[in-house]
Amino acid sequence: MQTTYYKKDKHLVFEIEEEIDECSVQNLKRRMDNEIQRYMPKEVIFDFSNVSFMDSAGIGLIIGRYKLIDMIGGELKVANVNLQIQKIFEMSGLLRLIPVECKKKEVQYD
Asked: What Cα–Cα distance (Å) separates residue 77 from each residue in 20, 23, 57?
């Protein structure tokens, strides 16, 4: 996972580069929480460009980060989700909480 913080806009971008499953979730959670607490961003973007698989553990990861970011007054968005992950978001109801910023390869960060 690559992390980029844009100080001017207080945006934190997580470019996830692995499958999100029970094996990877604990490490991702720890790293994301550390960066969120370090920067206290106004907006956090999960970039799913390189994620080919996500299971229910990923849903828990996202909901947990959503709650943390909401507590500090920030907003969580996701970007560049593929069709399979989009369906998981729809079926789980995550789309009611978290907007999908844009489709594959259209996102631009300031």
From this structure: 17, 23, 18
Determine the pLDDT at residue 22: 95
71 lies in some domain = yes
Contact at 8 Å (CB) between 48 and 61? Answer: no
Q: Can you give the CATH number for the domain in which 10 is found?
A: 3.30.750.24
| pLDDT band at 100; cut points 50, 70, 90 | confident
The neighbouring-strand residues paired with 2 are 15
Query: How many separate domains does the chain show?
Result: 1
Asked whether residue 109 is domain-assigned, the answer is: no
- The whole-angstrom separation of Cα 70 and Cα 54 is 23
Q: Terminus-to-terminus CA distance in the chain, angstroms?
A: 19
Single-letter amino acid code for the residue at 11: H
Distance CA 53, CA 9 (A): 30
- What is the number of other CB atoms lying within 10 angstroms of the CB of residue 89? 21
